């Protein structure tokens, strides 16, 4: 808890935002001011390739409440070098880089679903994603960092690839939208989950059920800005200040106060992002 502008506000973090995206380029300072006014004290800017990661680091250097995760998104795998480890290691050693990612596997839009795409193209695409994911995990293990994990239509393969590293690397399955069995598998690996504005959607019953089943010390809150703005902003550009609405919904689901939710989720974030 802290006093901000003479109003008592529960403190929260946005553990996954893409502040480096073009949608925000001319107004990051104003966005962060709105976040502070809403009680959002820290924001983790998530990289999607090396240039994105470098922009995130630059924002972290410019704004004290911003931290960075560096990595290469699986959906951008075909544009990545075959070996990203040297650059990834270099970027990850910056003092405000708190995790590797966004990394993982995404089979939602495979080449075979596009004109001229083949099953062989799918296999190459999946193989490249898997190689990049493994490299993130290797560097995370070496540096003692956690991984921000993206998975879409690929849960079993993602878990299988993370499992050999589970004793060395903790992952957060961001924007969690899986089943209760998926949740159990994530937690059994020693990893955690995070929840977005989908919690507030009318059709988000499965997400609310997953949060209800998640122990208080095993989840974080995020916006995934500029995506997935919560009600009442659904359909508009999302931004870190909207963790406020997500937290209010989450507290209702967990049957706890905002202060209790703040203590739990911020504590989990500090354990997960060791340099936060």
Structure, briefly:
The protein is an alpha/beta fold. It has helices at residues 28-37, 50-62, 85-92, 119-143, 155-162, 180-188, 205-213, 243-254, 258-272; strands spanning 2-4, 7-9, 12-17, 40-46, 66-70, 97-106, 146-152, 171-173, 192-195, 219-221.
Name some characteristics of this structure.
276 residues, alpha/beta, TIM Barrel, eight-stranded parallel β-sheet, two-stranded antiparallel ribbon, 18% strand, disordered N terminus
Textual characterization of the structure:
- This protein has 276 residues and is α/β, with parallel strands linked by helices.
- The protein has one domain (7-272): Metal-dependent hydrolases (TIM Barrel, Alpha-Beta Barrel), CATH 3.20.20.140.
- It has nine helices and ten strands.
- The chain has helices spanning 28-37, 50-62, 85-92, 119-143, 155-162, 180-188, 205-213, 243-254, 258-272; strands spanning 2-4, 7-9, 12-17, 40-46, 66-70, 97-106, 146-152, 171-173, 192-195, 219-221.
- The strands form two sheets. Strands 3-4-5-6-7-8-9-10 form an eight-stranded parallel beta sheet. The chain has a two-stranded antiparallel ribbon with strand order 1-2.
- α8 (243-254) packs across α9.
- The longest helix has 25 residues, at 119-143.
- It is globular, with a radius of gyration of 18 Å.
- It starts with a strand and ends with a helix.
Rg calc: 18 Å
Helicity range of the residues?
A: 25-40%
- Share of β-strand residues: 15-25%
Please write the CATH class name. Alpha Beta
Distance linking N and C termini: 18 Å
Total domain units: 1
* Silhouette: globular
In CATH terms, the superfamily is: Metal-dependent hydrolases
CATH architecture designation: Alpha-Beta Barrel
Write out the strand line-up for the largest beta sheet, numbering strands in chain order: 3-4-5-6-7-8-9-10
Helices and strands, in order, run as EEEHEHEHEHEHEHEHEHH
- CATH-derived topology: TIM Barrel
Q: Provide mean pLDDT, rounded.
A: 95
Low-confidence regions: 1-7
- Main beta sheet, described? 8 strands, parallel
Helix/sheet category: alpha/beta
Helices, by number, come to 9
Number of strands: 10
């Amino acid at each position: 808890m802290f006093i901000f502008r003479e109003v008592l506000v529960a403190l929260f973090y946005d553990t996954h935002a893409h502040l480096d995206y073009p949608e925000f380029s001319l107004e990051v300072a104003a966005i962060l001011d709105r976040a502070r006014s809403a009680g959002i004290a820290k924001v983790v800017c998530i990289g999607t390739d090396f240039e994105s990661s470098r922009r995130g680091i630059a924002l972290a250097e410019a704004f004290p409440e911003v931290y960075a995760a560096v990595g290469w998104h699986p959906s951008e795998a075909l544009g990545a070098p075959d070996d990203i480890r040297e650059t990834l290691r270099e970027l990850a050693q910056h003092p405000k880089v708190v995790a590797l990612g966004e990394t993982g596997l995404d089979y939602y839009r495979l080449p075979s679903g596009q004109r001229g795409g083949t099953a062989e193209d799918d296999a190459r695409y999946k193989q490249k994603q898997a190689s990049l994911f493994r490299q993130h995990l290797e560097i995370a293990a070496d540096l003692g960092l956690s991984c921000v994990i993206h998975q879409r239509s690929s849960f079993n393969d993602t878990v299988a690839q993370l499992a050999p590293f589970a004793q060395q690397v903790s992952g957060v399955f961001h924007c969690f939208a899986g089943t209760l069995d998926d949740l159990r598998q994530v937690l059994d690996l020693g990893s955690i989950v995070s929840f977005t504005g989908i919690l507030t959607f009318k059709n988000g019953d499965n997400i609310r059920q997953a949060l209800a089943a998640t122990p208080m010390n095993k989840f974080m809150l995020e916006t995934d800005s500029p995506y997935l703005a919560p009600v009442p902003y659904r359909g508009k550009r999302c931004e870190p200040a909207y963790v406020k609405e997500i937290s209010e919904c989450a507290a209702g689901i967990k049957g706890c106060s905002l202060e209790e939710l703040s203590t739990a989720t911020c504590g989990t974030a500090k354990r997960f992002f060791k340099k936060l």
